[in-house]
Amino acid sequence: MVTVEQWRAICENDAAYDGQFFYAVSSTRIFCRPSCKSRTPKFENVQVFMQAEDAIRAGYRPCKRCKSGGERLPDVEWAAQVQAFIEEHYGEYLTLPVIADGCHGSPYHLHRVFKAQTGMTPLGFVHLVRMQKARVLLETTEMSMMEIGVAVGMPNAAQFATWFKRMEGVTPSMYRNSRKDGEK
């Protein structure tokens, strides 16, 4: 249970509380020091731990920004954390600053580390995940192109169709029809 005093310390990034507790955010699976400059999480997503080790045992990862685990998170682990964040939030409006904020790092550093670890940019990975999800929806549902575009984070149907054709070489409708023809 988060106390009023702890919540105030989190919201105000109060360094006076560093060492007294750590807070973990269930939506990102990251834990931070109270002084962390990351975006203030939703109250209902916060859990408090007295020791960093307790947060780690509960399945949370140290914050890259405030080094809540006492040392820097290895780049390979941070890249995996970024991938997990993107896979969980692909349907939302994602930019490099949004991803960096969600993964507790700077946009420049995140871009550089992610590309070095995966061979692609974070936004390239966003497009890859969205494409995979769009193909599944085209193959397994009767959702409209607009509904699929919205579901994968592209609320403009024309933009979705253009993007899909550029990535797949066919329009979303042609893709769907070719899959149905293959079933016959």
TrEMBL record:
One Pfam family here: Ada_Zn_binding
Record bears the keyword Zinc: yes
BP GO terms, sorted: DNA repair; methylation
UniProt-listed SMART domains: HTH_ARAC
Molecular function terms from GO: DNA-binding transcription factor activity; methyltransferase activity; sequence-specific DNA binding; zinc ion binding
Tree of life domain: Bacteria
Gene3D superfamilies with a match to the protein in the record: DNA Methylphosphotriester Repair Domain, Homeodomain-like
Residues passing through the membrane, by range: none
Keywords linked to the UniProt accession: Activator, DNA damage, DNA repair, DNA-binding, Metal-binding, Methyltransferase, Transcription, Transcription regulation, Transferase, Zinc
SUPFAM superfamilies cross-referenced by the UniProt entry: Ada DNA repair protein, N-terminal domain (N-Ada 10) (SSF57884), Homeodomain-like (SSF46689)
Domain HTH araC/xylS-type as annotated: residue spans: 80-178
InterPro entries associated with the record: Ada-like_dom_sf, Ada_DNA_repair_Zn-bd, Homeodomain-like_sf, HTH_AraC, HTH_AraC-typ_CS, Me-P-triester_DNA_alkyl-Trfase
Protein name: Methylphosphotriester-DNA--protein-cysteine methyltransferase family protein
